[in-house]
Amino acid sequence: MRKQVLTVFAHPDDAETMAGGTLLKWAREGHAITMCLITDGDKGTSDPNDPREAVVARRRAEQERAAARLNATVVTLGYEDGVLQPTLGLRRDLVRVMRRVRPHVVVANDPTVWFRHGQYINHPDHRAAGQAAIEALYPAVKKASIFPELLAEGYQPHVVEEVWLGPTGEPDTWVDITDVFDEKIALICEHASQFPPEPTRAAFARIAREAGQERGIQLAESFRTLRLAASTVRAIAGS
Length: 239
Prior knowledge:
It is a single chain. This protein is α/β, with parallel strands linked by helices. The protein has a single domain, classed as LmbE-like (Rossmann fold), CATH 3.40.50.10320. Helix content is 41%, strand content 20%. It is built from eight helices and nine strands. The strands form two sheets. Strands 3-2-1-4-7-9-8 form a seven-stranded mixed β-sheet, sandwiched between helices. α1 crosses α6 and α3 (88-101) crosses α4 (124-137).
């Protein structure tokens, strides 16, 4: 069965770095991928003289090249980079995207993660994007009475079947990306303004090795997953 996959992340490159191997495998299997970018990554420069318009244009072009490797469609919401908050407005915008795309699977950040690898503080935009995505997923996207203005726009309620969250400290699903690791690095490095090839390969090889160790996989991506249903209580009851 061909599935609709929706990634929801704050910045260009977030989906590729967190789940690029898994997305490559899903694309190979013929699943349709839509990439929702909440911001344009307009703070993605160390040069104070780099005009915002130039940064946005550069990062949009990079994202389009990366998306082409996945045969993916890109949706941008245009929020400001670096100051993202999980507001009701953002939740509404994400519900709109979810009802339009009607995905079987949503891939997003785990908003509970603050630190990784003893060296990394999780970007606050990542946590905000993950929180907003989860709050859109339940219960707003499936409730006609929440954001009724979306009904007037023609967006009917929708039930997402699966949610894949990462990076996470509580994984329950592992994907072997050994055979697509080189492609994942090439996918990430389409974002050339952010990722030089040599340190990118070394860093993501370490991350993939660490993710796979627990399951005896050479190189892996790991996720915290949820299975959703129209009726949560019936699903928990097993009916």
